[in-house]
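Re: weekly structure request thread

Next one in the queue (650 aa):
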Amino acid sequence: MNIGRRRCLVELFTLCGFALAQPVLSTFGRAPDQFTFRGSSSAQIIGFGVVAVVAPALLLWGVELLAGVISDEMRVLLHRLLFVLLVAAIAVQLLPRGWARGVTIGGALAVGVLALVARERWSAVRLWLVYAAFAPLAFLLLFLFASPTAGLLYPGAPMADVRFEDQPPIVMVVFDELPLESLVTAEGEVDGDLYPNLAALADEAHWFRNATSVSPLTFHAVPAILSGRLPVDGGPHLTDHPENLFTFLGGTYDLDAREVATRLCPEDICPGRPTGEVSRWLWSDAREVLGSRLRLTDAPPDPVAAFSSDRSVFDEFVERVDGAPAALHFLHVLMPHVPYQYLPGGARYEVPPSLSGRDQGGSTWVDEEWLPRLNRQRHLAQMAFVDELLGDLFDRLRSEGAYDDALIVITADHGISFEPGGITRANNGEPLTAEATPDLLWVPLFVKEPGQHRGTVDDRNVLTVDILPTIADVLDVELPWSVDGRSALGPPRSTGTKPWRGVVLESHRIGVGEELDIDGTALLPQVLERSLGSILPPVGEPNRLWRIGPHSELVGQSASAVSERLEAVTAEVVDPASYTQGDRSELVPAFIAAHSADLEPGDAVAVVVDGRVAATGPAFLNEGQVTVAVLVDPRLVADGGETIELFRIR
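Done, posted below.
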């Protein structure tokens, strides 16, 4: 059967729409933070959607036309092959994900062949392919007008008409995925051993130790901080939150704002990244999404999961801080958010994906106890580096002569839980569990007023929606709109109730889910129980960050000095070449993993580096192999040529 060229284009447009454009636009439509993180402009977002719908069909049609130069039969044969492959691409996304990859792909190809036979035999199928060509256009319209990302296309809001008698510089940093319990000792003090810069700030600022977030999702948590209002349905952009910190100050203050997952600052004040850089990143992310949807890669299906903590974002922010009055320097940075890749001092390391400790979607931890515990240690190591970055910020303010005069606000959008088998953040519709509640709600909040030199610890009931009213209170002005929060420096709340808003993630919607009122008075003691004292030795003991495993008192000791407690085992170290190479400029092999047939799950194991016990941990079963995985002090593996040995601890 001969097939006309125009009909071929229509069929390719239809099938590419379902196979390629729909999964990309659906995923990116519910991920506006992907575009805000990349700094995409409105034109770039529109162009992304148009290209995703139009380009694949035109490209394949062009290939068919080239084949037609050889012969029309070659063109028709190629079109039939592409027809089968595109239908298979649609089918592979609909088949159950539990099937083996080979079975899934084979079944999808069979569906493609059957669809081609139906197309050749029945005119109704061919007619449907023509009328279905309107579907890709519908996908584009949903992306541009009905998805959460659509709100990014229509930015604009008037600046508040506010006059400030005092105009101190304001420096505000919002960290991501940082629970309060990661900062405090069992006595309820900031751990000055791990975090000397935060501890120094606490000595000079108001520390609201009972501050809590109102949502587990950045989409809702950061707008709540910036607007002073509890989460409602809508996107993390200016269209849905026109009254916020930036429009409050923008009429008087110079704004230097970097939002990595929201866009509440007007675009003409806070421009995005260079066009070429943005486009390259977006299409790279789109390839990852398609690779996962088509079962060609194991990449996560949501581009949000591809975010990375990048120290350069913080370094660039520090460089821009000049200490000038009437200036707001705002940064929301995805640290110490996953992926955990930084060590104290700033060295980077990598971890095999099989030892991430999370399920495929990343929303829950594995049931095995050690990997979530190990991830908490990695989180603390990354937070220790974040504290060093804060030190750079404070040093910059002092060098500019602005530290004393500045209003400094340090907080986080929400926490994270490390319960084995439990949720990480309850951000995919999972209910908020009793075990995760202290981990997710309580976040750090430090407010240093201009001229303040004596710190206070305040345990009144404070919420992150109180931050904007507190800033207005310090500036001695009234907010020109109503908010759900109140100044943390004003009269306290009459109750200890903590409002919490869950999250619903759907194809083209990010909604507010379960609404809860939490008894904060009863839970604050649990936060201190789950503090650093529950995982690390007391402050003052040596090597404490690296001592989270069984018999941790061995860490730091010479293996020969404790040889009576150690029994050598044969082990195969993962990526042994990384310990023999001397160049550590990019990555330090501080995450040591090994497999051993001599060990049984549950055995206590000492990992020895160059004759010294670097870490201890239990053996556990991972992908059918008895495995040991630990994180070690990067100074032990800084030079290359290290000898790694494993010993069972008697």
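Residues 370-399 form the longest helix (30 residues). The chain has three domains: 5-153, 170-261+307-534, 544-649.
Next request, please.
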